[in-house]
From TrEMBL:
SMART domains: AAA (SM00382). Belongs to the ABC transporter superfamily. Macrolide exporter (TC 3.A.1.122) family. GO terms for molecular function: ATP binding; ATP hydrolysis activity; transmembrane transporter activity. InterPro entries: AAA+_ATPase, ABC_transporter-like_ATP-bd, ABC_transporter-like_CS, ABC_transpr_LolD-like, MacB-like_ATP-bd, P-loop_NTPase. Its EC number is 3.6.3.-. This is Lipoprotein-releasing system ATP-binding protein. It comes from Roseococcus suduntuyensis. GO terms for biological process: lipoprotein localization to outer membrane; protein localization to outer membrane. Keywords: ATP-binding, Cell inner membrane, Cell membrane, Hydrolase, Lipoprotein, Membrane, Nucleotide-binding, Transport. GO terms for cellular component: membrane protein complex; plasma membrane.
Length: 225
């Protein structure tokens, strides 16, 4: 079985008024099924860019991104969107829930986009939210939920389509320390229980230490911890 994520010699550069800015160069990374990897590096060093490349939200300027063994660099936008929808789950620092929809509806949406019937999507959404202790909050809109509850809904949404790969960019960075610890423990438990590959960016060394291994970014390259 192919690894859920492999980056091979990936480079990414941006044009600025001062010239080309090379954020990533010759970056290599492989994450096996069931492996949870912490990505730790200072702000502005390319963590979000790396996650965007891994999640097929951007294309590399060189190198290749393999998702479950499939080279994604030359795929058209429709094929890349299908891989994101069916294979990858995203969690961000800010929950990005849709304010006009309830918690359960937010978790239903990615499933329905993938063609799941509304009734089946609601059943799965309710089950997922229940695992995060939100069974009594299904019909609450985001504005009626605490920060920790909102992020739990966002994690449930990321898991809704049973991804093989979970990508998280500072998933507890907007929470207080106590709530962050609780939410992160739930995130880890779900990822491990489902056998997911996960790449999780965090500034918190205590959270990073709870993962299987740590990598960092230095001079645009991925360095083992």
């Amino acid at each position: 079985m192919s690894d859920p994520l492999r980056l091979a010699g990936v480079a990414r550069r941006y044009r600025t008024e001062a010239g080309a800015l090379e954020v990533l160069r010759d970056a290599d990374l492989t994450i096996a099924r069931g492996e949870i990897v912490a990505l730790v590096a200072p702000s502005g060093t390319g963590k979000s860019t790396l996650l965007h490349l891994a999640g097929l939200l951007e294309r590399p300027d060189a190198g290749e991104v393999f998702i479950a063994g499939q080279a994604a660099g030359t795929l058209d936008d429709g094929a890349r969107t299908a891989i994101r929808r069916n294979t990858i789950g995203f969690v961000y620092q800010f929950h990005h829930l849709l304010a006009e929809f309830t918690a359960v509806e937010n978790v239903m949406l990615p499933q329905m986009t993938a063609g799941v019937a509304a009734g089946q999507a609601r059943t799965r959404a309710a089950e997922l939210l229940g695992t995060f202790g939100l069974a009594a909050r299904l019909d609450h809109r985001p504005g009626k939920l605490s920060g920790g509850e909102q992020q739990r809904v966002a994690i449930a949404r990321a898991l809704a389509n049973s991804p093989a790969l979970l990508l998280a960019d500072e998933p507890t960075g907007n929470l207080d320390a106590t709530t962050a610890g609780i939410v992160f423990a739930q995130l880890l438990a779900e990822a491990r229980g489902r056998g997911l590959a996960a790449l999780i960016a965090t500034h918190n060394p205590e959270l990073a230490a709870r993962m299987d291994r740590v990598v960092t970014l230095r001079d645009g390259r991925i360095i083992p911890g």
